[in-house]
Amino acid sequence: MGIWIETEVRSAQCVIVDSKRHSGFPVPDDGSAEDLGAWWERERRQSDSREDIGSWLRDVADYYLRWDERLPLGAHKEVLRVLSRMEEPHRLLEARLLEHLEVPGNLLGHKLGALGACGGAESLAKLDGGLSPDAPVSPFVRKMQDTAHARLRRREQGRGRVSFGELAIPSGVGLMLECVSGLEDTLAAVMMRECGASVRSVKSHTMLGEVEVRPGDSWTWDWVDRVRLFEQMRFQPIQMRDRITLDSPAPSWAQAVMDAGLAGIVDSCTDGARRFAVRVEGDTRIPARMLVAVARALEERLKSATVANGMDDPWVNDPRTEDWVFVFRETSRGYVPCLRLDRRQWDRRFGYREALLPAASKPTVAAFLAEWAGRLPDGSSVLDPFCGSGMELIECGLRFPGARLLGGDISGEALDAARKNARAAKVTLHELRQCAVDEWTSGDLDLIITNPPFGKRARVDDVVRLLESFLAMAAGSLKTGGKVVWVCPQPKRCTRFASGLGFALERKSRLDVGGFDVEAQILRKNG
Q: φ and ψ at 526, to 5 degrees?
């Protein structure tokens, strides 16, 4: 990894400044495709997990303003691609891009993409006037110019403010919570406990299950941060007689949204421009031109309804920075219109995930295991011997603040990630060890909670041996009556082995975790 060095003179002392440490944003300096690809994937994964993506992008902008003239071409393009994800004006970056917009010419398209993301009135005036006659006009440059111009025009209209607490669901529309397939019953029970709402568990044949929620009169939205078991939410008509088919004209698709009352949900809680996108879910591939026609027809209907109701706030079809998504879900009898609110507007449950690892636990599965653990008295000892980035331990810490949390992993990188995430979650991990699973020798544990490693590349016999070592360790480490709450990828073989060690299977549930059919289990150690 390259390091640019700058010398500053302060009080006759020479201070060396590491640009990567100063900016917090390292870029490979050789520009090789392999290094840049690895760098970009790492940065992209980290950016997707950040609670405040805007702050990270401002760091990228500061890095670019400091080092743009020294970046090799490959790294220059990658940084500009990152900057094209900005969603707020940045006057200094805009000025720098406009100053050197067409030099060098082979970066023009990428600079236009970033300019559309961070620019304002000055950028719009520049694009309204057109590029210089000598500027290259390749199809890529023309596409980026048109995209930047459209984004700047939309920015002129402003962005609405969504107040989640004001959201009102009309009669005939249900709230659907999507979860990992197998968590439906637990999610339904938690919703009834937290909200007292009418709920119905809906089994699914895909990796996602569903729970239908019908809010009551005293419904409030403060449950969102507490109910940690669902992946996404959508609003969907409970009953629809007329379904849309693939050969239905675009106006029919748009009218279905209006008839379902979904636009009223957006109106109830959005102050200012209502930014939306249109998408289709299902096996059938809708031609792009058809989807564009549906989006335009819907925009016309929404604008007409706004005028008819005497409202001033515009509807903006903006797939890049939308707050709302009108989704047409494919069913056996046609397409059903639904509505999703961008999860950045409501999802603060797992903002502590600052460090990610490949094949890390889904946070909703970690929360599910902590929910299954039941109640733990203060001072209880909890161990995760395959702790990875710490998801299960952190969820236990949030649920049982008085518990003593212990973790282990063979990877030092994983333990560093667990520490970082725990600090962000304000959860204390009392002990972390870099060790193999069979090296734990404690005899006073109340709970062992874990999602052990498994995958398609691992040989079944190797996985089983590892799991048997884990169960043997658990049998020697738990108190009598202590529990193992875990995800088991080989339930038949492991359950037989655990029975021979004195464990009783108390509860089980099949889960679909990323395409793997596994079983969540509670094993209790008998006396």
A: -80, 160
